[in-house]
Input
Amino acid sequence: MAPSLPWVEPARTFLGATADWEKSRVVLVGAPLDVTSSFRPGTRFAPQRIREVSVGLEEYSLLFDRSLRQAALFDAGDLLLAPGAVGPSLDRVEECVAWLAAQGKKVALLGGEHLLTYAAVRGLAAAYEGLIVLHWDAHADRRQEYLGQELSHATVMHLVARLGIPLYQMGIRSLAPEELAAVRPLLRRPALPPANRDDNPVPGGQAGSEDVSGGLYLEDLLAGLWAVLPALRSRPVYLSCDIDVLDPAYAPGTGTPEPGGVTPGEIFRAVGHLPGVNLVGFDLVEVNPLVDVGDCTSLLAAKITRELILACSLT
Amino acid sequence: MAPSLPWVEPARTFLGATADWEKSRVVLVGAPLDVTSSFRPGTRFAPQRIREVSVGLEEYSLLFDRSLRQAALFDAGDLLLAPGAVGPSLDRVEECVAWLAAQGKKVALLGGEHLLTYAAVRGLAAAYEGLIVLHWDAHADRRQEYLGQELSHATVMHLVARLGIPLYQMGIRSLAPEELAAVRPLLRRPALPPANRDDNPVPGGQAGSEDVSGGLYLEDLLAGLWAVLPALRSRPVYLSCDIDVLDPAYAPGTGTPEPGGVTPGEIFRAVGHLPGVNLVGFDLVEVNPLVDVGDCTSLLAAKITRELILACSLT
Amino acid sequence: MAPSLPWVEPARTFLGATADWEKSRVVLVGAPLDVTSSFRPGTRFAPQRIREVSVGLEEYSLLFDRSLRQAALFDAGDLLLAPGAVGPSLDRVEECVAWLAAQGKKVALLGGEHLLTYAAVRGLAAAYEGLIVLHWDAHADRRQEYLGQELSHATVMHLVARLGIPLYQMGIRSLAPEELAAVRPLLRRPALPPANRDDNPVPGGQAGSEDVSGGLYLEDLLAGLWAVLPALRSRPVYLSCDIDVLDPAYAPGTGTPEPGGVTPGEIFRAVGHLPGVNLVGFDLVEVNPLVDVGDCTSLLAAKITRELILACSLT
Amino acid sequence: MAPSLPWVEPARTFLGATADWEKSRVVLVGAPLDVTSSFRPGTRFAPQRIREVSVGLEEYSLLFDRSLRQAALFDAGDLLLAPGAVGPSLDRVEECVAWLAAQGKKVALLGGEHLLTYAAVRGLAAAYEGLIVLHWDAHADRRQEYLGQELSHATVMHLVARLGIPLYQMGIRSLAPEELAAVRPLLRRPALPPANRDDNPVPGGQAGSEDVSGGLYLEDLLAGLWAVLPALRSRPVYLSCDIDVLDPAYAPGTGTPEPGGVTPGEIFRAVGHLPGVNLVGFDLVEVNPLVDVGDCTSLLAAKITRELILACSLT
Amino acid sequence: MAPSLPWVEPARTFLGATADWEKSRVVLVGAPLDVTSSFRPGTRFAPQRIREVSVGLEEYSLLFDRSLRQAALFDAGDLLLAPGAVGPSLDRVEECVAWLAAQGKKVALLGGEHLLTYAAVRGLAAAYEGLIVLHWDAHADRRQEYLGQELSHATVMHLVARLGIPLYQMGIRSLAPEELAAVRPLLRRPALPPANRDDNPVPGGQAGSEDVSGGLYLEDLLAGLWAVLPALRSRPVYLSCDIDVLDPAYAPGTGTPEPGGVTPGEIFRAVGHLPGVNLVGFDLVEVNPLVDVGDCTSLLAAKITRELILACSLT
Amino acid sequence: MAPSLPWVEPARTFLGATADWEKSRVVLVGAPLDVTSSFRPGTRFAPQRIREVSVGLEEYSLLFDRSLRQAALFDAGDLLLAPGAVGPSLDRVEECVAWLAAQGKKVALLGGEHLLTYAAVRGLAAAYEGLIVLHWDAHADRRQEYLGQELSHATVMHLVARLGIPLYQMGIRSLAPEELAAVRPLLRRPALPPANRDDNPVPGGQAGSEDVSGGLYLEDLLAGLWAVLPALRSRPVYLSCDIDVLDPAYAPGTGTPEPGGVTPGEIFRAVGHLPGVNLVGFDLVEVNPLVDVGDCTSLLAAKITRELILACSLT
Output
């Protein structure tokens, strides 16, 4: 940068990011993996677009009465992933995530397609003993193969479960027939929490006392989260959030939208429950700017990212 | 099809459709009537677009714990309707629907504009004695004429009512001044159902006991349906669903969107009430892919169609 | 209008229109007929949209070194045409055009679909003895019926020819097999004009000397016009211009775009040839704002309209 | 207009507007101010676009069982504001609003950007002693300067407060760090109203008894309105409604959308509370047709405008 | 298909396709390969979209005075290719193309991305001794690897050349620095053909007499084709046409548009030169409906496909 | 940047930019001025969008057989300009441009709206004695005021001329009536250059020998440039290129598109003439990504920018 051009804007990073690597606690990394999408591709453009629209938001969050400046966020840019190269791309994601954990940083991973969660969990499992995966999604992603492929956005949670990591899925509102047999024993329709369920925070002791063997909670994200919160509190937790857990009215920019999802208000209330949990990182995946309308999905993703970064910084 | 090309995909039909006409119970027919729209035309493209996006959904429905494969759906393609020819088009729809009823098939009719409901009801009235029409819509469609035309999407329910068919309308949130005089005696603001109104299924005996003289229920679709369910249970029922009963945020792709409608969740809960009813067919009309955004209206229409087909197959 | 609100803008009319009916020489009328389109409907929105974007142009034309103010244009608004009512709509167009001719006004008709040309020619034929129709289009529109309909945008020039009006068609680059038999004797591939063909104006005596029995000139609009100019000079001429004579890159907003058409430069050169002709009116049809991109078709239509109005005012 | 062309449509005004200035009670004025937007410009196109889409609605409102015809609305067109000229534009808005108040008319102001509210309040403050401003928005707009500018859409409510006008803000869900210090004492998280909060109308006596020193109510629009209604009832009230108070799913067409807002149903319920208030005028600002999708924001704005005009006419 | 529903439309195939496999001479196959695109993905949707819009064209071609009905086209549908599986997909394309050649059919291959050409050429090379590849494109596609991948749309012509197949490239207007060293010896700037270059057909004897060692002709497609026609006449020829050879104004729907390309008129004139050549098949690749505007790229692709099918059927 | 994250992509700068300020010869600066647009705003987004899409091009130019790497381009980012603040923004542009000239750098300025050219010329006039301005545009931009404003995109060339700088305008195809009186004496319709006009480079001696008093050349950009090249050769030249000099089919993303402009091929040929000129800087203005379609305008702007940077580096 020219020393004598003080009036120029710096290059685009995520809203409120610091330039101080040493002091940073949370590190944002873009992972534009976009290979196995079966319907509408384009998730490769999400990390950059989410950064760009993030400047339309404030750094300060009313939800947490706290600013991103306090979160010490470092934006490391995007991983270079060769188009069409699934294996090497997953290796690079795993290597990056593991390295960040070794540096004591929490990771905020912006996809890209959902398959990268498999790599991220592999990268974190060694660093965090007893890691639990929390999964918000419209789909269970538990096929055993998809059109003959084992590595796919549609098989990613099958792959995670096979690693022996406890897995709590919620918001699920669509299941493929071939998933059904495998997941039927795991299905839960959670009871609604007590009357004050809309309030933050959830008093931990009043929730159910699930064990850590995992479960698949249908539709109601908040009821599902309420049910599993006690189980989450004793372990390091990684959250994988597929943007299609939201209704397509709020998040049309995604590859396989599924009508009938949650609202932004429900997502933000759910995020408001996380500070009681040891959140060691998260990913936000399947945002597809190529099919977005008016950037509303990218903008919503940016706000969810802001709140999740703050949740990470608070635990 | 060339016998030695086993690797090619079949042509596009609706998700999960069977090739076995004999065993089919529900027959999907597209009726791309698109003549009398007063604002934004384009509904002629809906049947094909809904089929195309339907492959992004699963055949299995969590709502009914049942798959389209079990519904024995046959997709008969689209009716050939000459542009601008209202009368002959309506005759063809009527003839088709009557013939399907005579074959013992239930009809799933994808519009096209709403006027086709008049033809469909004429075609079914002879086959099903005591037929009742259930109507979900933002507008009452009960003008007596529209810009001098008697046959119009804006007069269709006036035409149906004139056939002497009992008519239950719900979700209505917009009325033209000229409709008001005629429908004022029919207006109902239904009481909310008891506390568990969100649960499926509705225990029939607890609902109100309407007679079969019809009614026009404002705004709250579920409360209206709850009120009329007892009346529906003793008769064959045809459902006409105008996609604009949904809020434009969920269904922007329609000719005359009306702000303030129901959510997909409410529609699916309403559909969940239908298996107790003898549903002999349905139409889904006024989807307009030409003004849709990101195909979200077509996709939502496809999911509603899936659930309504399953509801037909269960009764 | 409130007398004490001098700062408000006037309502939208076409660029440069006068409020003085008496002195006006050219009258612009919108005819939003939009019934028989076989592919993508939406032409009903064209007249208003063309007016709106026209304000982005200047009133002064470099082509004619003359301003719209000098043309004494009156903008009469749009005809009220009931959706779906073909016959009454055509009658209204005919009546309006005939009345304007009787008032000594030249008509600038903005469609709407092409079928309205049939009505306009009927309305003008009585007023102007020896009327000739000049037709610029990608398609010949000379089917005898279309999906069983006699009145259609695809049959309009067959209808005009049947009136006994000499018809010169040019720019045609697509023919239906069923048109071919009828029009084969009329096909012309015009020789290119002499070397200075790009210059304005065309010296009349040097062009070919066609009789007035009409003809169908393929593809090259300027060569075709050059060939027929002598025949046009002795008679009143009505020009019907279908926007799809232009390449879809310049005019994507139309119902049945046909790749490979003329450029705006060619159209403007062609219009530059018209002042030597007794142009008694024109229509510009098949602009469809609903499928336009960035209003570029409407804007090009507005500029063509400006130049054609000036051409009318010069003859 | 030509006397002998009785079949032409009148020029575009807002739905149901009267031509009788003398008898009119509410006057709609467009103020296409569009200068200081920091992100996506385009609000200058809103007044005209809202008028155009308003014809897709009915004049009759179910919410008030009353028609726009009864409201005696006059549509005065748009103010002529030179692009880039902030000061003169604000002066013109102020002058217009003051003049309308002097004529005994209530003003319905369609923006344009939010900064115009400052001019409108200046224009009304002299005419209505004790004026109170009610503000519905996603953002507090209380910065003291924005990128060195004092006059900005981001400072408008700071400017209003500095005039000494009591200011009640609600629906706020985003605050800039630099606003926080100033507004912390004003922050309120209102208790939910009693169980029947969804019903209309709110029985005034049961609400809280705020004084008229103003306040900033977070997020829940209805709860905030419920809390301040008693304070509003004794004074003339001007409502400033920023369309971004709605969730971007319902109103994507705006410059700085903020995920997580209210629904159309909540807005209409809030408007339903206003007839008990002496509403002397309102503005609806920040609609941006340039980034709208399928005109859904403009259409929603038109419906809100209809209901607010009716609310004005009822008080 | 139900025997008693004679009024339903057949499923979507390409315009004018026959159902008679035995008599067919040209077979259209969709190959929705969409894995290695480095910029904007979406070519997987092209085969189906091109079919759909093809019905907006006529079956009769003025260029060849011949109809598709005479070409005996069979539309075999799309190959099933697993997302992300490059190797197996290429094998399937090769197998399909080889099998069609063995059946004596000419292949019309609709991509999908350009990499499939490598598979098609492998499949045809055995069947047609002395095969020559003609390549129309904006880019040379002769990188040796792309981001570490050997199989890529950017390396495809390097792969073809390595097979030892003579390769004539034309229309090229963009070269990567890393391609330059390899292709410099092959660069040609062809002289313009004689004055009547715009006329069809090109008299063969007057053109240049290239040998069959291939060449890379810059920018001017017609001049390049003119130069190589003599070399093409003695051998079986496969044409690979990348849609981005056209200017983005005509074909915006493609992954890596390059400003400054040829016009549709030039393409059609080039196709008009092909009947003198033994054209044994062709592909049309890199159409991307996901980033198209108003389907104009798909429509242009459909028209080019029609003309190329006719060219195949004439040789 | 974290030292140990070597796998991340660098932040977005223009294609092929160097990080070495000292050695750089051409400096790219974004100037997102977007205040006085009278029609469709949005040019503020152009600099960033042009950078983003530039990566879809190659660094190597066939036109100059030279790569951007050889041009030693430094991308300094965007100037921070407060929305709505015309005067301070112009001062900042002037200051920046003057400073760059003082450092011996040539400036590549990406707008933003055209008004910034006034500031740039002021900044350069002191540094380069005898500076001449070359202006490519659809509009003359020579109004004396626009809606009462003196500083406007519509007055910018009037302001430049008033500085006493010789001004050569070409490509102009639209004039406002109020401009006409002032510019009539300057109007030129240049004779076509000799037969080889399409070839590069233009042999200087054969062109006309204009003096340096300026001129306004209508429509044909190449003929105009040919006529003024001799006059340009003895002086430092600044080029101001308004993207709307191109036809809207190629550059729809601009505020006031004017049908009938030049093609990309003509622009590139014109740029090919510049290396004989002492080009000391240029601007490319009025690109508006907000109304672009498929980024085609931004992409074309990026390619023109690449060629102009190379032209600067060659002189």
In short: The first strand of chain A starts at residue 26 and ends at 31.
